[in-house]
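ok new one. same drill as before - structure tokens go in, u give me an amino acid for every spot. 728 of them this time. try not to just spam alanines like last time pls lmao
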């Protein structure tokens, strides 16, 4: 038997700073077995342990990559788990504001942003998650990082407005979070707000037959959301939300309340005022529990947000509520092609014309609604006008920003191709108009910007950010916005876009549906001083450093200040807090309402120091002349085990090689290093010298502070127990 002598070495390693990457790939031992994306806050994730032993969750995290975020850009939020999952058991994490049917089955309820996920977010279950590298051992995932699918991944089995559950034939984890995601390869779909399976794993669940769309549905009102949206029960095609069609009421989402002194002068307060009037009017027409019929276009039953598009008929008196809101001046008409019924179109347009002529509601002459809802959304959300506007009488269509060329009661909104297909002609000076279009010319981005509005250009650039229909691209000459309704590239794609240059509220852009991906690339943001950001940087990806948030306005526009007192504006829905200083903010430069602003893609509050392992090395040797140094005639000892402990926990074991050498990579910290005593040998003397290689151990331990490059070698000498060297 070998006698083990624990020779202790406490080492403080001061580690230099260098980037390094960590690859983490391992077999999964936990699965995401259920995904609940229900109404309101009904959101939950169920984790299943298919193994035969309990699993401690303290090293596991649920991580959400929001709206196409990846490991380097975008919003990434982590929730560290706790507790234990027994064998063949489940663990449910739920939003703390979910309904009782969800909360009663949860082991962990939380207000973390992780559990505010939507259908376009990616959720990953990690083991040993690293918040710096945003990586770890992937156990399972839902979605694809770096990709914003719009509203959801999948179709029949979708991450929006559904409950997804695993079955016995779908038990393979998705540990590749960068490949295309298809939820039907992991789950079957149950209707929205299905909670019966939550908290238990039943691999024999059978998906209900797909619901077949009908022309109309009989349901009950649950509540009014705003002037053109209600909640109903039971759900229609998985959705409990009805968005009234053929009409549009003022928005309310942008302010908690309006200031009455501002409703005649401020666009946002005016919009809120009329939005509240419309909501009040709809509440008077539809009360909770009321029976209604919802008429839909069964070929186009929901919008991009999963809401059912329909006309609401009150059962008690057969009144069309959509039409009544228009007649009374609480709503404008709003027809987006295809128009299901021209009879309905004429009826609604006649109603809005009559309301306008009579000065009812929003059309009153003294204090009218200052912006129609679609124009408000284009301005406030910064997405711009998205559709061309056709005059149903003259069959002429206009560019989106020229919507006011068409009377409200004659408007139909189209894509350009739809308008042309329906026989509409472009107005002079709009779109193709009477202007002879030159063939598109390939040019770099700066040349396209310098060419002036109306240039038919072909530009190629790398996608740096996507904001709704605005695609920010950049080449080595500059940046520009490509506006597209139909094409959704990924961050990092190199795209070629063909279209006409234009401006929207001063932001230069190319309107294009002719876009193709030609490759991938990465743009490195240039660090800019706040005072140096202007038109030259428009649409470019930049970085600003060490700024303090001074204030925020009601439009979620934050004013930041640098150490020189220079200020700039950042438009962000979240991630910033007044009074805090942020080390790095990276984003694209946009422009609206006379100001350049930064749309952030990555926010770092504190400078992150990445620790890099440093090599600790040494030898084990047979000290034959008993002087404590490695010299003649000493021999090197192979196969000596070196055990390294940190806080009494074994972190690494290494063996000396044929040359008696060992090496270990260690991060910053205090370590105890133990050398295995060779059979028949004892520890040699320590000469207390500074020789390059000597024995650093005496009486079992020595303290060494390694903070200089000349102190990397820690060695141990052993000798035969003869004479005075003999140990008892």
């Amino acid at each position: 038997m070998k006698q083990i002598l624990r020779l202790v070495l406490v080492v403080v390693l001061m580690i230099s700073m260098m980037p390094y990457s960590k690859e983490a790939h391992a077999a999964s031992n936990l699965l995401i077995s259920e995904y609940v994306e229900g109404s309101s806050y009904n959101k939950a994730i169920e984790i299943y342990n298919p193994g035969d032993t309990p699993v401690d969750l303290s090293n596991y995290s649920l991580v959400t990559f929001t709206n196409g975020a990846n490991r380097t850009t975008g919003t990434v939020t982590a929730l560290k788990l706790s507790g234990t999952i027994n064998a063949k058991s489940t663990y449910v994490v739920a939003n703390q504001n979910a309904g009782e049917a969800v909360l009663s089955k949860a082991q962990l309820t939380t207000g973390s942003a992780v559990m505010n996920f939507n259908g376009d977010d990616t959720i990953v279950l990690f083991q040993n998650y690293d918040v710096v590298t945003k990586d770890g051992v992937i156990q399972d995932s839902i979605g694809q990082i770096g990709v914003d699918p719009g509203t959801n991944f999948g179709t029949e089995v979708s991450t929006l407005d559904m409950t997804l559950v695993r079955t016995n034939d779908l038990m393979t984890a998705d540990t590749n979070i960068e490949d295309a995601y298809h939820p039907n390869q992991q789950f079957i779909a149950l209707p929205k707000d299905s909670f019966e399976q939550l908290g238990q794993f039943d691999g024999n669940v059978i998906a209900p037959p797909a619901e077949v769309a009908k022309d109309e549905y009989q349901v009950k009102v649950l509540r009014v959301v705003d002037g053109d949206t209600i909640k109903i029960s039971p759900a229609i095609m998985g959705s409990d939300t009805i968005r009234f069609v053929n009409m549009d009421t003022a928005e309310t989402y942008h302010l908690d309340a309006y200031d009455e002194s501002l409703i005649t002068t401020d666009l946002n307060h005016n919009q809120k005022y009329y939005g509240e009037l419309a909501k009040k009017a709809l509440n008077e027409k539809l009360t909770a529990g009321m029976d209604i019929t919802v008429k839909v276009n069964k070929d186009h039953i929901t919008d991009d947000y999963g809401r059912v598009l329909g006309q609401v008929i009150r059962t008690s008196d057969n009144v069309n509520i959509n039409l009544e809101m228009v007649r009374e001046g609480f709503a404008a008409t709003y027809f987006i092609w295809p128009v299901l019924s021209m009879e309905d179109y004429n009826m609604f347009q006649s109603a809005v014309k009559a309301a306008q002529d009579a000065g009812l509601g929003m059309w009153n002459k003294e204090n009218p609604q200052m912006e129609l809802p679609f124009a408000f959304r284009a301005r406030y959300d910064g997405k711009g006008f998205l559709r061309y506007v056709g005059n149903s009488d003259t069959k002429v269509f206009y560019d989106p920003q020229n919507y006011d060329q068409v009377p409200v009661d004659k408007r139909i909104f189209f894509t350009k191709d739809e308008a042309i297909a329906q026989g509409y002609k472009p107005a002079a000076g709009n779109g193709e108009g009477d202007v002879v279009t030159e063939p598109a010319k390939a040019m770099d981005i700066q040349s396209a910007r310098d060419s002036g509005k109306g240039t038919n250009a072909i530009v190629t650039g790398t996608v740096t950010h996507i904001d709704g229909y605005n695609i920010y691209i950049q080449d080595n000459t500059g940046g520009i916005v490509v506006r597209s309704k139909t094409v959704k590239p990924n961050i990092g794609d190199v795209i070629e876009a063909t279209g006409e240059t234009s401006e929207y509220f001063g932001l230069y852009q190319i309107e294009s549906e002719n876009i193709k991906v030609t490759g991938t690339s990465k743009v490195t943001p240039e660090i800019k001083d706040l005072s140096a950001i202007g038109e030259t940087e428009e649409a470019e990806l930049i970085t600003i450093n060490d700024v303090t948030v001074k204030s925020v306005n009601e439009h979620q526009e934050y004013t930041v200040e640098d150490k020189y007192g220079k200020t700039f504006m950042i438009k962000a829905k979240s991630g910033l807090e007044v009074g805090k200083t942020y080390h790095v903010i990276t984003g694209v430069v946009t422009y609206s309402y006379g100001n350049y602003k930064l749309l952030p893609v990555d926010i770092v509050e504190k400078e992150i120091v990445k620790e890099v392992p440093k090599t600790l090395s040494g030898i084990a040797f047979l000290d034959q002349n008993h002087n404590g140094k490695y010299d003649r005639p000493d021999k090197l000892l192979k196969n000596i085990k070196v055990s390294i402990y940190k806080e009494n926990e074994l972190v690494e074991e290494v063996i000396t090689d044929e040359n008696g050498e060992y090496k270990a990579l260690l991060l910053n910290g205090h370590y105890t290093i133990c050398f295995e005593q060779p059979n028949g040998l004892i520890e040699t003397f320590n000469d207390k010298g500074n020789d390059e290689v000597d024995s650093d151990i005496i009486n079992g331990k020595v303290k060494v502070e390694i903070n200089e490059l000349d102190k990397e070698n820690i060695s141990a000498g052993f000798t035969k127990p003869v004479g005075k060297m003999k140990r008892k």
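The chain is about 10% helix and 35% strand. and btw The radius of gyration is 33 Å.
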